[in-house]
Amino acid sequence: MQVSYRQVYEKYTIAVIPIGDKYDLRFMLKDPDRGFRIELCDSEHYAVEGAKRFPELYEIALKHDFIISPAEGCFKHKVTGIEIDFTYAMDMDCTPRSFEQLILSRLSL
């Protein structure tokens, strides 16, 4: 499998995998075949930049009791069920601060 970008963390790996003329940004636990798509991107640059940002945003989500819900393509709050779509985290304008503000505003509703 060809990989454009890969970063291995303690519990997971983030990778960008070319698929034809698209780039699959994937979150993988121990088994790469059991990973799931965060987003299918048109641009390798966009996919790699998203892959670099995603771990920090993932940590922010975990801090506020969100988990990854691959079936829904979102971060989902463990108690309330509030969902925040992965596309928010993939927005090039999304910063850790703006992502955390989004989480806090959704939790306060």
Any overview of this molecule?
- The chain is of the alpha+beta class.
- The protein is built from three helices and seven strands; from the N terminus they run ββββαβββαα.
- The protein has a four-stranded antiparallel sheet with strand order 1-2-3-4. It has a three-stranded antiparallel sheet with strand order 5-6-7.
- Strand 3 and strand 4 form a beta hairpin.
- It starts with a strand and ends with a helix.
Would you kindly provide a brief summary of this structure?
The chain is an alpha+beta fold.
Mean pLDDT, all residues: 92
N-to-C series of helices and strands: EEEEHEEEHH
Helical fraction equals 25-40%
Shape: globular
Distance between the termini: 44 Å
Number of helices: 3
Query: Could you say which structural class the secondary elements and strand pairing correspond to?
Result: alpha+beta
**Largest sheet geometry:** 4 strands, antiparallel
Instruction: Report the β-strand fraction as a percent range.
Output: 25-35%
Catalogue the unreliable spans: none
- Work out the number of β strands: 7
| Rg over C-alpha atoms, rounded to the nearest angstrom | 14 Å
Adjacency order of strands in the biggest sheet: 1-2-3-4
